[in-house]
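Revision sheet: structure tokens.
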Amino acid sequence: MESVLQSVQGFMYPNEVELQWGILIVLYPFTTGLVAGAFILASLERVFNVEAVKPTYRLALLTALAFLLVAPLPLQLHLGHPERSLEMYLTPHTESAMAMFGFVYLWYLMVVLVLEIWLDYRKDIVLMWRESSGPTRWLYGAMALWSDNISPASLALDDRIGRALTVVGIPSAFLLHGYVGFIFGSVKANPWWSTPLMPIVFLFSAIVSGIAAVMLVYMVTAWWRERAFDMGCLDTVARYLFYAFMIDFSLEMLDLIHRIYEADESFRALDFMVHTRLYTSQVLVQILAGTIVPLGMLGLVQLVQLSEKARRRIYAMAGVLTLIGVFAMRWNVVIGGQLFSKSFLGYTSYKMNFATREGLLPAILLLILPFVILAVLIRLLPPWKVQRHGAGVSG
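Predicted:
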């Protein structure tokens, strides 16, 4: 039977030959995952009092905001008529998970993330307002809402509200990205997606990717500013990355074992696809290079005493491989779930164009855009300490 499957390309319906979702839909869960993971890392210091990760707290918030601003753009390009997205707010459809995401996104962006960043930076915004001149002064004045009240009582209130927002933001971040896995997991007609573990796997892989991204951004910004690395912070962030990665890998293996044990009528077709169409992206890139290798590198640091230079190199390499592995996981879910026929006999392939609306070039630009936004945010709201008039002020 296996030889027959390997030699036969069975019937596929016309709407199955051409993939409906391409690289842009791969980017969408990848960017939202970075948002959720970065916010979870920030909450370690604000809610769980992990002081060691404090140097990455504000950087994690700004990273989450930069990627959150870009997250809906892949959907807008795929939609073709972005003005139609307003319909989810004007005529809400409560039974549609996709439509309800618009409200989850708006809540998380405007109420949770932006407000928390504003409360945390309000004192620094007022100080920069007082010290700046020209258009910059007007900008900081508008950001401060033209109020320069930074009394101890006012700042204490800001801190209490900010902590409450962080507590609310944790389940909001889970909902923001967990719903993406829910969308795929609820498609009963597709055995590649239809598993109750899909939302949980998406969520933990999001935490892993967000922590890895913030760790890399912290290392790059410290190197760019020619500042010494806070190795206590890096070691702690890498340790939490290792813990989250272990949970994520265990969940993915649990899902795989369950599929193998269940071995329903779709298993043989999916197994054939993994060994052919998705062998490189799933087995080599996602599992081997993007999971086992970085896990081994991070685990080595936990077991062996290494120099600071060696640890920095390991963290940088593990972070890059982790992001590649998580992106490959998104690719294999989105693209892989569309490569086989409902008859489980026919298979197709994904051909990605370059300079088209849903091609490789827009995808690359959308991946670069969050870092451009992050650079602007860092310029306006430095996440590290700056010197003003001889006094060190957190800014």
